[in-house]
Amino acid sequence: MILSKNSNSVQQVSRPINKDFSYEEYPFYWIARAINLYTEQMKKILNKSKITVTGWRIGLALRQHKVLSISELSEICSFNSSRVTKTVYAMQERNLLRVKQSTSDGRVSEVSITPEGNALIGQLIQNTRRTVDLALDGLTDSELLGVHKVMAKVCDNLVHR
Predict the structure, then answer these.
(1) Which ranges constitute the DSSP H helices of the chain?
(2) Spatial distance between the Cα atoms of 129 and 155, rounded to a whole number of angstroms
(3) Long-range contacts of residues 96-99, Cβ cutoff 8 Å, at least 24 apart
(4) Do residues 38 and 109 touch, judged by C-beta distance below 8 A?
(5) DSSP character for 22?
(6) How many CA atoms lie within 13 A of 16 on its CB side?
(7) What is the pLDDT confidence band of residue 8, given thresholds at 50, 70 and 90?
(8) Which CATH topology does 50-128 take?
(9) Which pTM was predicted?
């Protein structure tokens, strides 16, 4: 980061409205850059199995939660409902996911992962391990926990205000 050469506070240089703004001190620059670099690396691996990043996130969410609605998947995976719906039905055609109508609310589609989908996501976890390991290389548990806390606070600020 550039802050060491600048006598202004981080709060000043990290806000575009300030005259001393520096994109290197702008947290959203680093967030976007990290996501883009990670996504490009993941696409190279996932494309070999004909799984999109959207499908990857859906698969990971369903491995953890077993059954989720389209709207829950959209929120967890950070994609709009139409993108999630399109991906879910494409994955269902490949027998990776199962979609059924909720018994408690017929307007809701519930999505679960099939054994084939679970096996594929399990294999992809192994295939993407190196990318994840490289991305997190050198971070201590404390630093990683700090990243989680900071990002959760940023998201909470944006969602609840």
Answers:
(1) 10-13, 27-46, 53-65, 70-77, 81-93, 115-136, 141-159
(2) 26
(3) 96/55, 96/59, 96/120, 97/58, 97/62
(4) no
(5) -
(6) 4
(7) low
(8) Arc Repressor Mutant, subunit A (1.10.10)
(9) 0.87
